Amino acid sequence: MVVPHVTDQISPAIEAVLMRFAAMVRRVGIRHGLSESDVDEVFQEVRIRLWRARGEGANRALDAAPAGPATGEQISSVGSSYLYRTAVSAALDVLRRHRRPREDALEDVGQEPAAPSRREPEQSLESSELAQQVARAIDTITPSRRPVVRMYLAGYTREEIASLLGWSEAKTRNLLYRGLADLRERLTEQGIGPEAVA
Amino acid sequence: MTDAELQDLYRDALAARDARPGASCPDPEALQALVERQGSDDERLATLDHAFACRSCSRELELLRALRAAAPSVRRPRVASPWLVAASAIVAVAAATIALRSLTTAPNVMRGPSAGGVVLVKPATNASVLAWRAVPRAVSYVVEVMDTQGAVLAADTTVDTSFALPARLRGRSAPHEQWWVRARLSDGAELQSPIAPVGPR
Fold first, then answer.
1. Which of A104, A150, B154, B193 could anchor a disulfide with B118, C-beta 3.0 to 4.6 Å?
2. Do residues A139 and B18 lie in contact, with contact meaning Cβ atoms separated by under 8 Å?
3. pTM over 0.90
4. CB environment A156-181: b (16+ within 10 A), e (fewer)
């Protein structure tokens, strides 16, 4: 897809805030594998929308900041909610676009390959089977505990899990402990003990 | 198997899955509703369960989550209204009153999550043995001692109602270590205790 570059067609003040916003999104997301290209695509879409909205006066509040160095305070006081909604709307459109059936196979080149295993080649088949057994065991955990376990094993902290679910830290910890206990029990039932990955 | 090993294996399992969205993937709007904490707990748990078992959805969710976390001065919707806060305070005061009264009469035990749960006996200071009350129809008990991350430090399956702490866990100050017991019944059902602190030892 050809995306027009409109950076110099929105005000420097808004561009500076957008850049800061995008940098923050990268910092937050990079820990869990969010790619820079995903973030860049969304923010280019945001720029296009802001540029289009200029003529309609929709982002007048955003653009009301005086010329000169942009400040986060200006944007947060007049238009952070608008900016966030625009970014979310742009992101949803980008995601929907990615989900459409591809017209040709070449676009699939951008698809990320499977992460290479860190183990030695002779161990990879065995560890792959073990990984699948772990995944299958997780599928059998009580539904209320399962998503918490998945998030934790995907590398999210208890605080992040609690924040996303709107739960207290204590509730999150409780369900996580029990979910992990369930998982270990299922694995033990399958004969997979602590020595399995030694 | 340690938490880190489980995490490695889970990531390997996810990496082997197809990265393209499938027919069962929730709409992007459902992922956004999760980020905004909208919808019922059940709906959000179902979406989350899929999202973190699916490479495509987890990547999409992370994008939306990062946008939310990084948004300048955008506040989450308030969950608690002033009335709810006031009601919570009243309930808390009432609960504290009941708890204080029960301290004078209650035995030194921690009740299970329900009337039929496993009842833990509160460990004495410097205790080397953890004990719990026998459960009718129990054929075995699983006892686990965990650290703050939920990693199991010691575990045992026993027909007894006590567990001797391993020497490496005795005589040290680890106030955040916790334990719990699950009873397996003769009909295959399972009862659980609450998770409780092991206490100083």
1. B193
2. no
3. no
4. bebebbbbbbebeeeebbbbbbbbbb
Are the C-beta atoms of A83 and A21 separated by less than 8 Å? Answer: yes
Inspect the interface and report whether the beta carbons of A147 and B69 lie closer than 8 Å: no
CA pair distance B101, B8, nearest whole angstrom:
49
Contacts of A143 in chain B (CB under 8 A): 45-46, 49
Reading chain A (198 residues) residue by residue, the pLDDT tens digits are 444 455 446 677 778 778 888 888 888 888 888 888 889 999 998 888 887 776 555 455 555 544 444 444 444 444 677 888 889 999 999 898 888 764 444 444 444 444 544 555 555 666 688 888 999 999 999 988 999 999 999 999 998 899 888 889 899 999 999 999 999 999 999 888 766 655
Strand partners, B145: B154, B179
Element (H, E) at A82: helix A80-99
Whether A183 and A190 have beta carbons less than 8 Å apart is answered as no
Residue A12 vs residues A7, A38, A63, A105, A128: alpha-carbon distances, Å: 9, 23, 10, 39, 50
ipTM over 0.90: no
Which of B7, B29, B178 lies at the smallest CB-CB distance from A92?
B29
User: Is A115 in a helix, a strand, or coil?
Assistant: coil
Residue A150 · residue B7 · CB < 8 Å? no
Distance between CA B39 and CA B31 in Å, rounded?
11
Long-range contacts of A161-164 (CB under 8 A, 24+ apart): A164/B34, A164/B35, A164/B37, A164/B48, A164/B65
